[in-house]
Design goal:
The chain is of the alpha+beta class. Helix content is 29%, strand content 22%.
């Protein structure tokens, strides 16, 4: 072997030894770094998924909300032009009606000067002071309340008028059917205590109006109103929510698909007015996310647990249901709520709207109106007609979650808390309900009003017991259309679901009068397990029919159906007529 080759081999061996040493040194160096990294590692809060975020309100919004204070509003009716539809007097604005069932109703607006003041008049430095031209519009708001002699109003400030407490639009609610005049204030104040919910800023206000279009030169005292924040895009921003998120107000939404009304805005058949009859868009007309959710809720091939996980926040859903049930706020199954979804999220949250019907169990007893409501309107059965809740309530874990939330809220919203809040509000409301113009339309004596204040705090206990009872009852159902089959009548109805998987039997009655007094009953069958019955042909005349469901534990339930005669609502029954020729006509 020549010297050159020997030197080459020795060089290679030396290099290998050197590299081995470097590796050992590197391994030795890495080990201390690893230990150092572990030693300095700190705990970090995991980054949440956007769909897992709770609904959190901004408590700072309510720090100046004083239930004993009074806001003063001065409104001068100026009218406007035909081009923008504001050329109306106050009497024309007040003539507006928007009752249930009415469609294509156009709002009647007028131009106004809106001013903030005190008991003496508009205040320098406050919004509208010194204004001589219109800075806002006003129109009557509400549906059933539009028939009342004292109206509720919506105020929309012009962009050049500025904002008032971060708001450009707000409602002045008269609450004509609330004999206490404080329920809405109470509802939204207590709602601030409920987790995974947002509330609305409320305050009592005294309103003065001068209709210059009718020649008035002085302000007329319109009495007590409740100022309520309107949920819209600005509301979302003020409450720390997603300003450009989706926000819808439910007008008649039971979470069915509504293919003929709920369409994409790009659909040639899209009709905003028809859409709004179900859900009224408040921020955007990009409805793709909404439609995706409704499709999922109505897809029975996917377990409802998967749908809820993907599209809803369970803590928010249970808070919404539990709070409304505990407060006895029954008119919240198809309306009086909002749906909100943040930008870049497909999760939907329930927001509350309108609580002036809460805590009225004693009032119904005092004024003998208990029969106006069906048995099913108490507790969970009140929400059985809503597709989403219907599917959720069939799941044991969801019913348990709702029960747990009810128990939690009972510790927060006690009768003592309610009584203390009412005492605060009465320092304002008693001033107005005992004088004009409010006392003439109060629909209760002062003595009766005092009884309501005394007993309202305990309505939460009544509502809670009705909730527990509702879990034991069969769920409500619908009566079908009566059909004639040769010389007989065929009646059928839906199944009454039982949470405890008990057998449910049905008793059917037909009567010549809605009272179902013994002398009026012309047919009765049951108890039976089948959900239909054949009845021998009846003579010509008008009839009512009803079905009572009863489970093995003896708890009963009526049908969802009802009709009205005069001012009386008859629950759990339908009507039909047999003509002289034997033709059968189902009546709604």
């Amino acid at each position: 072997m020549n010297l050159k080759r020997v030197l080459c081999i020795l060089g290679i061996l030396a290099l290998m030894i050197l590299l081995t040493g470097c590796v050992e040194q590197m391994e030795t160096a890495v080990k201390p770094d690893t230990d150092l990294t572990a030693a300095r590692t700190v705990d970090k809060v995991p980054v949440p998924e956007i769909g897992d975020l709770p609904l959190v309100d901004d408590p700072a919004l309510y720090k100046d909300q004083d239930p004993k204070s009074l806001q003063y509003f001065y409104i001068t009716i100026m009218g406007g032009t035909a081009s923008d539809g504001t050329n109306h007097t106050l009497s024309e604005v007040n003539a507006y009606l928007n009752l249930q069932g009415m469609v294509d109703v156009k709002k009647i607006k007028t131009g106004i000067v809106f001013q903030i003041g005190d008991e003496f008049g508009p205040l320098p430095g406050e919004l509208g002071f010194g204004a001589i031209t219109t800075n806002a519009t006003m129109n009557v708001r509400g549906r059933t309340s539009t028939i009342a002699p004292q109206k509720s109003y919506r105020i929309d400030l012009f962009s050049n008028a500025g904002l008032w407490k971060g708001q450009r639009a707000f409602a002045l609610n008269k609450h004509p059917f609330d004999r206490t005049r404080l329920r809405n204030m109470l509802f939204f104040t207590l709602l601030q205590r409920v987790p995974n919910m947002t509330s609305l800023r409320t305050q009592f206000a005294q309103v003065f109006i001068r209709d210059e279009t009718a020649g008035e030169t002085a302000f007329t005292d319109y009495g007590l109103y409740t100022l309520v924040e309107l949920p819209n895009g600005r509301y979302l921003r003020n409450h720390g929510l997603s300003r450009d998120g989706n926000l819808y107000k439910a007008n008649m939404c039971e979470f069915y698909r509504y293919e003929d009304q709920i369409r994409l805005a790009t659909d040639p058949l899209y009709d905003l007015e028809a859409f709004s009859q179900v859900l009224e868009p408040k921020t955007t007309e990009d409805h793709a996310k909404l439609i995706e959710m409704l499709d999922a809720v109505n897809n029975f091939t996917t377990p409802i647990e998967d749908t809820v996980e993907a599209y809803f926040n369970l803590e928010n859903v249970t808070s919404f249901l539990a709070y409304n049930i505990l407060m006895g706020n029954i008119d919240t199954n198809s309306q009086n709520y909002l749906l909100y979804s943040p930008v870049n999220s497909r999760t939907w949250y329930f927001l509350c709207w309108d609580g002036d019907g809460c805590l009225n169990a004693y009032e119904q007893k005092l004024f003998r109106t208990e029969d106006d409501g069906g048995v099913w309107q108490a507790g969970v059965s009140n929400y059985w007609g809503v597709q989403l809740f219907n599917r959720m309530l069939r799941v044991d874990a969801y019913r348990k979650a709702l029960l747990d939330k009810m128990e939690m809220l009972r510790g927060i919203i006690t009768s003592e808390v309610i009584a203390a809040e009412i005492a605060k509000y009465r320092t304002v409301t008693d001033t107005f309900t005992r004088r004009m113009p409010d006392i003439i339309n109060l629909d209760a004596t002062i003595a009766q009003q005092d009884l309501l204040y005394e007993h309202m705090p305990y309505d939460v206990d009544i509502a809670y017991q009705k909730f527990l009872d509702s879990l034991k009852r069969p769920m409500p159902f619908f009566l079908g259309n009566l059909e004639r089959e040769e010389d007989a009548l065929f009646l059928y109805w839906g199944e009454a679901y039982s949470f405890d998987a008990e057998l449910v039997s049905y008793t059917v009655q037909i009567a010549t009068d809605w009272s179902f007094a013994p002398e009026t009953v012309v047919f009765e069958a049951g108890p039976q397990l089948q959900i239909n019955v054949t009845v021998p042909m009846l003579p010509a005349g008008d009839y009512c029919w009803r079905v009572t469901a009863q489970n093995e534990s003896g708890y009963t339930q009526s049908a969802f159906d009802w009709f009205i005669t005069g001012e009386t609502r008859h629950q759990g029954m339908r009507r039909f007529t047999v003509s002289d020729t034997g033709e059968v006509l189902n009546l709604e």
